[in-house]
Amino acid sequence: LTKQRNPDHALKILFKEAEPLQTFYQLIAAMEANKPPKGWPVVHAVYVRDILVLRVGIEVPLRSKNLSGLRLNNHLHFDEKKGLWRVVVEKKELKNRTSPHAREIDRYYSAETSALLTEYVTFHRQHLKGADQCDLLFLSSGSGVPKKDPLSFEVANLWQIVARLSKKYLGVSIGANVFRHLIATAVLKDDP
């Protein structure tokens, strides 16, 4: 008999860590140490976008549909007085909107994430397909199979980004929902 590997083993280790978010901060640090050349604007734009997917997802854990549908000047606003970006997702846009516990999401991003958001919106987003045609925060690089709406950043793209980056830098492929649950686990461990 051969001993089979449990496919959930690596994820169970992550959930048991005292600080599960530390793993993702290590992932981000590894990415930041591995910058692509700035001479390739689309590659650099995708790199910054991918770091933002992680940072934005860590600081305000949204469902994949809400995260992929974030729009500038609708959900995301820059507060000039505070120098921070703010995300607002109305209750009617949430999956569990009928729950008595459902509330509008209205939070500020950290100074570090806000600075990266400003850099992305100001310098990098314009290099991605459709930047001049829509206000979606996350855009695709324009490559791959054509979609119904070629400008939309589909939920599947989030899964692919999180899974690809976690596999590359952590050695285990983590999907977007597990990513969100790890964040929730970290929040509960911080404030049981």
Descriptive overview:
The protein is mainly alpha-helical and about 190 residues long. It has seven helices and three strands, in the order H-H-H-H-E-E-E-H-H-H. It has a three-stranded antiparallel beta sheet with strand order 1-2-3, with helices on one face. Strand 1 and strand 2 (about 85-90) form a beta hairpin. Helix 2 packs antiparallel against helix 3, helix 2 packs across helix 6 (about 155-170) and helix 3 (about 40-60) runs antiparallel to helix 5 (about 110-125). The radius of gyration is 17 Å and the shape is globular. The protein starts with 8 loop residues before the first helix and ends with a helix.
Structural class: mainly alpha
Write the element-wise H/E pattern from the N-terminal end onward: HHHHEEEHHH
Strand order of the largest sheet: 1-2-3
Strand content: 5-15%
The unreliable regions are 143-151
